[in-house]
Amino acid sequence: MKLKPVEIKDLLTYRYPENLTYSPDGKTLAFTLAKADEEKNNYRRDIWIIRDGEPVQLTSAFSSSIVFWKDDTHLIIRRQKEESDPSATVLYEISLNGGEADEWLTLPFAVTAVRKIREDLYAVSGMIDKNDPDGWKKSAEEKKKEAEEKKKAGSVQVVDEIPYWFNGAGFTNGKRTALFTVETGKKTKIRRITSAKFDMGEFIVEDGTVYYTGNVRDAVQSLYAKVFAYTPETGKKETLYKKADHNIYGLFRLEGKLYALASDMKAYGVNQTPDFVRIEDGKLMTVLEMNRQLGCAVAGDTLLGGGKAIVKKDNQLYVIATEEDHSAVWKYNSSFEKTVLLDEPGMVKMIEVGEDGIAFVRETADSLGEVWMMNRDGSNLRALTDFNKKALKNKFVALPQRIEYESGGFKLHGWVLLPQDYEKKKKVPAVLDIHGGPRTVYGEVFFHEMQVWVSRGYAVMFTNIPGSDGRGDAFADLRGKYGTIDYDALMAFTDAVLAKYKKIDPDRLCETGGSYGGFMTNWIITHTDRFCCAASQRSIANWVSMAFISDIGPMFCPDQCDAQSLYGDENTRRMWERSPLRYAENCKTPTLLIHSDEDYRCPLPEGMQMMQALCANNVETRLVIFHGENHDLSRSGKPLNRIRRLKEITGWFDRHTGI
Q1: What is the 3-state secondary structure (H, E, C) of 344-380?
Q2: N or C, which end of the chain has less CB nearby within 10 Å?
Q3: Which neighbouring-strand residues pair with 178?
Q4: What is the rounded CA–CA span in Å between residue 231 and residue 235?
Q5: pLDDT of residue 84
């Protein structure tokens, strides 16, 4: 029986489990399940729980998300309603035993996280304006009057700091994340703990104390963080680490000691792997040097929301780690001795630990993301949900064929996806797909865009080159090397694929990639003519311009180009030397450019510069700009825009390969 093709519109049928969270007693797992809403062109989210080993839907009236567990049988949630006031947060309480969600608490600012300190007392992070830090205290009438006055003054945006915008968040100038305590009961009492200019990174609550990171933010945001403790019962605020010399995050406590992940960024720059450190007596003491990044760096396009990558339970630390081409689950005891609990091909995206097991969202080569579980010793691995089984029923899903090769002294590998009935075909076109990052990896997971191209008759090839994650900092270090060892590896991989798979037509090779992959696309088309066409997505064309406009530009661009600063002829030369735009006159490859006008990571002018340079050189080119989308268009953009994006790329390939 010939299986049905994976089609672009199948994106509308996928389900996306997110934000796994256990009840305080560790017995009930709750999570959100997202799905595309074609009519509204967004994503609807419902809350589910696992009851007696089976998934049970808890909400359906409104799109909802989990905030935290109030107790073992009640969740605090948000409901997305069109009339919601963006300057306030309405929280609802819902019982696991059924019934409607009741309004629990309204806070007069945008809430980002809530942690319980004790009964009726909570630590809350929320957004304030540094120039009006107590604006949340104003009455509804005062807020309405201010909004009307702003409207009369016209649409104006003032910026006086960097970054003044952030990808996915829009203009953030003057915005700060503040720490509050909120006392509930007969009367709600709100107290702001941090100062007007302080920008908090993250916080945890342990034994009645709030531990948090952050720094006072001036005109230029610091890469470094300090560590603080606040005890609500006494009102005492203490600085636990006051030096501004490390990026610090991932706070947790084991056996009464405070730990974190920290990097001084001296050896490998801003992408350096952080180590486990203990924070004690005003010092950072390294307890374990890490050679792998924690978290999932496996690229994909069929998972949406976030979740935890590090979970503490019973003085054990459970983590997701990226290991070469997949994400694994490890456990550390209080002496930081590691036990590998899961180390299999595929992707573990988020993790949560309960009384009897470890839950996580997992994706493999032939299955979309589902909620899985295993015992806390790593045994009895099993899937708890099959939300996406129907979406792939009777579909042809190509499984990755591994291929080994060498480049620059590295032993490398990649994969090829072959179309159905490949052996019966005379010749097939192919797509080289390059991941972003660069500290990302490809793995053996279901990748929608790749399966679409396979179903249309393309072979798809993808690999992890120097610069990728999962093999330590030395392998991932591309500073000053962009377009050299990575380019050579991609060409060696392409040669290896063509040598092994003789039916792939070398005259009908397409190429694409986004972000770092977009940079590499721009570099490839200006350094070789071997591809019949290319699609450059959310790309970098010019490191110099990106350094002065991207939300991460001032620190990321010089760092990655091995420049010492933004200024001076030598530093400019280094950034320009690694810029594809410098070599645009060499391009002959028909190139599609995809960009979003709210992409503040690789801003739209990068795509515009490249398009204009190619067009002026009479190279066939087309720039498609997605309004209202950001850097994450291909992964979490509006459903219909994601479909249009993939149609544009696929149509471009089809036209130039004659498929």
Answers
A1: CCCEEEEEEECCCCEEEEEEECCEEEEEEEECCCCCC
A2: N
A3: 126
A4: 6
A5: 59
